[in-house]
Automatic annotation (TrEMBL):
Coiled-coil ranges from the UniProt annotation: none
Name of a matching Pfam family: Cas_Cas1
GO biological process, one term: defense response to virus
Cofactors demanded by this protein: Mg(2+); Mn(2+)
Name assigned to this protein: CRISPR-associated endonuclease Cas1
Binding site for Mn(2+): 166, 234, 249
Domain of life: Bacteria
Length: 343
């Protein structure tokens, strides 16, 4: 199994990244903010960047250290990576399957089954852990609804019907997301998903968590030789990492949503960690983003038993494990893709 290395997050705006020997140097207005060795990094993520030197980008590309640039709000801008790994036969097979909508649906339905299964057990765990603080009957009814949708998905071979069933499941789950916020209710609430820009504190954190997860998933796919831009559920669109969005579906709730809920319910993040702009957009402050990213990196280090592999791995390696399993399926080593089923 791949070794989980560190991610360097650059949260201050207008920081220039340069190379000095085997180290990345952080500069702002010609002042040196820091100097870190590159040998134990797997990625660099910069928010509101000024730029990076060609020497640093070349060094990182040769050593498979990705550099991702995001806006201060957490919107993905660009990523610098090295040459594609793996053999061309795997990528050709991926493209052939993607061109066939029936075959695409057979793969995509397992992404969605994994997503809905994980959402179901998030709801079930809430009824177990907080029976006096939530409407248990409502949660149980939603859980049963998700179970019925999963049964319908098993034989689904049509992408449009697949999306329709996924939409029904998402509606049932999202209607209960606000009820899973148990602390700081005046400042944190979920009414509906808003993005570009996020319009409340919860959506601001969800957007950032999804961006980070998509970046990790894209890197995992490229690391096993797949093309992150050729998807099965998400169809081709210029500039969109469709397969990364496919693969992260099953991890949205169990990884990103639960992470955001924990920051709120454990009061790691509070109302003072957000900026509310005149156009209605809500952003994390610099200090708020630091808290968020520190907790995210700690989350990646936590161990979980992989349901299919039966091994204890770090949460940060789950996207890599799923990318490996998908590649094995496309090579015909596995009859079908095994989604990550958390419980």
């Amino acid at each position: 199994m791949k070794k989980l290395l560190n991610t360097l997050f650059i949260t201050q705006p207008d920081v220039y990244l340069s190379l000095d020997g085997d180290n990345v140097v952080l500069l702002k207005d010609q002042d040196k903010l820091g100097r870190l060795p590159l040998h134990n990094l797997e990625s660099i993520i910069a928010f509101g960047y000024t730029g990076a030197s060609p020497a640093l980008m070349g060094y990182c590309a040769e050593r498979n250290i990705s550099i991702t640039f995001m806006s201060m709000s957490g919107r993905f801008l660009a990523r610098v990576i090295g040459e594609s790994k793996g053999n061309v036969v795997l990528r050709k097979k991926q493209c052939l399957l993607s061109d066939d909508e029936v075959l695409s649906a057979r793969i995509a339905r397992n992404f969605i089954i994994g997503k809905i299964y994980n959402h179901k057990w998030i709801l079930e765990r809430m009824t177990r852990d907080y029976p006096l603080r939530i409407d248990v009957e409502r949660f149980k009814a939603a859980s049963q609804h998700l179970s019925s949708i999963m049964l319908a998905l098993r034989e689904c071979e049509d992408l449009e019907r697949l999306r329709g069933l996924e939409g029904q499941a998402a509606l049932s789950y999202n209607q209960l997301l606000d009820s899973m916020i148990l602390q700081q209710k005046e400042d944190f609430y979920f009414r509906t998903r808003s993005r570009r820009p996020p319009l409340d504190n919860v959506n601001a954190m969800l957007s950032l968590a999804y961006s980070l997860l998509a970046n990790d998933t894209a890197a995992a796919l490229e690391g096993v030789g797949l093309d992150a831009y050729v998807g099965f559920l998400h169809r081709d669109r210029p500039g969109r990492a469709s397969l990364a969005l496919d693969l992260m579906e099953e991890l949205r709730g169990v990884y990103a949503d639960r992470f955001v809920l924990s920051l709120i319910n454990k009061k790691v993040i509070n109302k003072d960690d957000f900026l509310h702009k005149e156009n209605g957009a809500v952003l994390l402050t610099v200090d708020g983003r630091k808290k968020f990213l520190t907790a995210w990196q700690n989350k990646k280090q936590e161990k979980v038993t992989h349901p299919y592999l039966g091994e204890k791995i770090s949460w940060g390696l789950v996207p890599h494990a799923q990318a490996l399993l998908l590649a094995r399926h496309l090579r015909n080593d596995l009859d079908e893709y095994p989604p990550f089923l958390w419980k």
